[in-house]
TrEMBL record:
The lineage of its organism: Bacteria, Pseudomonadati, Pseudomonadota, Gammaproteobacteria, Oceanospirillales. Its main location: membrane. The chain crosses the membrane at residues 6-28, 40-64, 70-91, 117-139, 151-172, 184-202. This is Threonine/homoserine/homoserine lactone efflux protein. It comes from Marinomonas foliarum. InterPro entries: LeuE-type (IPR001123).
Amino acid sequence: MSLSIWFSLFTICLLGAISPGPSLAMVIKHSLAGGRANGLATSWAHATGIGLYALLSMLGLAVIFHQFPLLFHAISYAGAAYLAYLGVNALRSKGGIAAKLESGTPVSVFQSAKEGFLVSILSPKIALFFAALFSPFVAEVHQISGKMLMVATPWLVDGLWYTLIACLLSNARFLEKLRSQAMWIDRLSGLALIFLALYILTTI
């Protein structure tokens, strides 16, 4: 893979990672509720979902979606339902950040990792990103080493970006300020997740 092709791929992956959405909300939620370990678990589980999509793109994700549109619709509906579920829970503070902090209930690292993975693997936005923007690079790369780099790049970019977010959020002073606003963060993240779920349903 030439440096120019890799840099173009890197730039697209970075822009995709830093765009705000449910992934960012999820990392913020778990960094706030459980601290740095939970934030990192969410970040790298999310990146694993990204890496899986990159691998599927190497196997022809765009062709798969074209031949089996029901598969893409199933991912979209499942993703919308999952986001709506998380949003309603956050609004009601049932399992949300505020409820867990008030009750002293610890958030397990496994739970953080599970939600991080699900929010990436069930996201139609991410599926479309790889089908539309990532797949064209596949035709440019033929060597096994280049293909491995193509899978590793989005995985590393996503994981490192959200690692940075988790580390910034887990700063002791900053974390206490955020936790004092836990109820408002629950409400805002809940509304954002429900809005995203509705948006997905209207664009399927």
